[in-house]
Structure formats: C-alpha cells, structure tokens
Automatic annotation (TrEMBL):
Pfam families: Methyltransf_21. It comes from the Eukaryota. InterPro entries: EGF_Rcpt_Signaling_Reg, FkbM_mtfrase, SAM-dependent_MTases_sf. Residues 136-287 form the Methyltransferase FkbM domain. Keywords: Membrane, Transmembrane, Transmembrane helix. This is Protein Star. It comes from Amphibalanus amphitrite. The gene is S_2. One of its GO terms (biological process) is endoplasmic reticulum to Golgi vesicle-mediated transport. Gene3D superfamilies: Vaccinia Virus protein VP39. One of its GO terms (cellular component) is Golgi apparatus. The chain crosses the membrane at residues 37-59. PANTHER family: PROTEIN STAR (PTHR34009:SF2).
Amino acid sequence: MVPLRGRWFPCEADSAPGRPLVPLAAMSSSSGRLGGWAVRHAASLLLVASIVLLTIVLVHRGSDILQQIPYVPDLQQPQLLPHEQIMIEDIRANYLKPPSYEPYNLHENLKKDPSRGQTKVILEALKNMRNGFFVECGALDGETRSNTLFMERFLGWTGLLVEADPSNFRKVLSKNRNAWSVNVCLNSRNVKSQVRFKPAFNVGKIARQNASGTVEVDCFPLHALLLALDVRRVDYFSLDVEGAELDVLRTVPFDRIDIRTLSVEFAHTSGGGKPALRAFMESKGYTVIREVKQKDWTANDFIFVKNDTFSEEERRRLSAPYRRH
C-alpha cells in the first residue's frame, strides 16, 4: 500500500498473481480497529501535520524575505551623502583586493613579529585579543616592519592594508596576506581625489604636482574604505604616512567609526607637530599610553587607546611605563 494525499491506495504488488489474499473478515476486523484508532486521534494528527506544514512554509518564506532585504550597516544611516555612496561603489568595483587563500610568501618566514615594538604594546592593551580587525596605512610591502602581520598569522586577525606606492602594493599582493588590500592614499578631505606620489619604498610620499619621478595615485577618506567593507569597528589602526597623519585623522568621523587603539607616527607630522597630534586625539576621547621609539628612527609612534573602551584604571596601568620616563 502507498499513501497519496492522506488516503491509501493498493500498489501493483498487492494484486500480483500468486500472492495470498487476506480473508475478508480479517480485513474488516483490522480495518475496524485502525478506523477506531484514527477517529480517536484524528484531531492530534491534524494538529501535528498543520504545525509541520506551517514550519516548512515559514522557513521557506523567511529565507526568501532575507534574500530580498539588503544589508545596510549603521554607518550608512543617516549620514551617508550621495557622493559618499558613489565613492563606496567605486571602491568596491575598482580598488579593493580580497584576502588571499594561498600560503604566505614571506621573505623572513621565521620572524614572528616584524614590527618595531608597536604590536607588543597594542596587544598588551587588547589582552592578546583574537580575531580582531586592523587597518594598516601605509602597509609598505606587507611584511617589512609590519605592525599587523603577527596579529594576522598567530591571532586570527584580518583587516585592510592601505598602500599608496604602486610598486610596494605589488609586493603586498605577492605576500598572500589574509586581509583586504587597496592601492590608494588616505585623503585629508571627504572626497575622492588624485595626487602625485613619489615612490621611495619606506619614505615615499605625496609630491608637488609638477615634480619629476612621480606617479598619479587616487585618494579616498578612511571612512569610505571602511564603508565599502561594511566595517564600523576597528580594533587597531596603524597610521604611518610620512607627515600627513594629523590631516588624515581630522577627516575620520570618530563618532561613526569605533577605533579602539591606534599607533600614529609623529616624527614628521605637519600642522603643529607632535603636540598638536596629541592634543587632537585627546579632544576625540583618546589617551596616550606609550611612545614607541627606536634609535634608528624605524619607530616614532604614539600609542592611543579609546577612553570609552578602556577604564581609567586600565589606562593608568597601561601608561605606567610611559609616565615613569
């Protein structure tokens, strides 16, 4: 017998030649018992069947509805301006390079932490946090003196590598980093623009419009890059752009992007120098907990933590070595 729409119908095997037939009396008796049981439990069976059917329908329709509703991050409501939407679509279509799934291709594979001390202080503040999100600008070649490579390799972080120098950026891609990469500079204005950039490995910088030996590079504000990735929280922002740090930070909407820790180079900062940089970040709700410096000038960084994220006691503990000097 096979079920069909709640009724039972005989299949071909039931009437096959040679198969013994069940006596009519036995069939009647059995049918009576089954019929009585079915009548007594009909309401329960109907309720169970209805619940199962309704669940299937709701799950199916729910899936369809979720597919029809686009994800809109908080950053896009309501402050996103028309020109920002254009920038975001441009970045997604033409600039962002996705993380690599290939094995790392590092020059010094055995060197765990290539930073010059910044990574250690940041991870002390974040208590060796796993699976965080970073932004590193400039990323150089993705390995040399990288402030984020250790976090990525050994603590499961990912993030965004920003490098303006096209030759350096090709090297970044060759390292097979598990992070998004983008060959642009960070703009000091809330628009897309173009600048002349003089490549020089770790000291490349924006040059005069008519300077020789330069290349044209596109620039975007940091928050546009993050919007393009649907990111609204950055656990660590490493900023080293050969003097333009303060100008870049002034474009960051700190009320819209939650940046928990930063390392910011101060050696070449224009527009008031080191004191102005510190004062600006303090006005945005950050505290300097350390200065990371090396005698060979490979590090001259403030380490900032966000006051809303770290308690006064934590900030005091983290800054104790700094205050003793």
